[in-house]
Amino acid sequence: MWIFLVTEVLFFGGMFLTYTINRHEYFTAFGIGSNTLDIKLGTINTAVLILSSLTMAMAVWSAQVGKKQLVTGFLIATLVLGSVFLGIKVVEYKQKFDHHLIPGRGFDVWYLVDNSKPQTEIEKKHLDDEREELHKATLVDPDIQSHAQLYFSLYFAMTGLHALHMIVGAGLLIWLIKVSLRGRFTPRYNTPVEIVGLYWHFVDIVWIYLFPLLYLIDRHR
Q1: Backbone angles phi, psi at 218, to 5 degrees
Q2: pTM tops 0.85, yes or no
Q3: Among 15, 20, 110, 204, which lies 20 to 30 A Cα-Cα from 151?
Q4: Contact 204/53 with Cβ under 8 angstroms?
Q5: Does the pLDDT at position 122 exceed 70?
Q6: Domain 2-215 has CATH 1.10.606.20
Q7: Spans of all domains in the chain
């Protein structure tokens, strides 16, 4: 498992390097892209994953000390938290689709500010601020559309790959839950729980890096 995780570090490392190079080259466009993300949903997902790491660690501890019922309970809690994370990510992806922020022919970083209908003065001021930010960004980077699209290409590639790892982890948790219900895990035999725990913690750590890189760069609100 440790060897596998090292290969995963190299795999994600290549994507982080690609992101870093392009962020340095197109900082303004990447900042605009980052500011369109929902910081509240991103923060909630970060808290959910940190909590899931705690429940996974407790599942490993419970298996090591022979608390069979707690093993199942903590594994189920971890699975539920992982499912919540994926559900929130689906909501975020739908937002990007609704706001025309999916890389391709229909991509338009101006769509939200040009087509939203504010209901309150606060919403109107918020949209006016967004429009002003975009105008300033366009003066700095005339090709803001293409470069912002590059940001979202990396956003979907990195978060999509992370979500795929979460889905694999959820499958492993389901298998562990089935085995734990049979009382298989004891102080003498708990290696599967520990191995899956290592994988789950790695996936959580990846998100800890993704969150500030994607959500917090040049955050103006």
Answers
A1: 50, 35
A2: yes
A3: 204
A4: yes
A5: no
A6: no
A7: 2-215
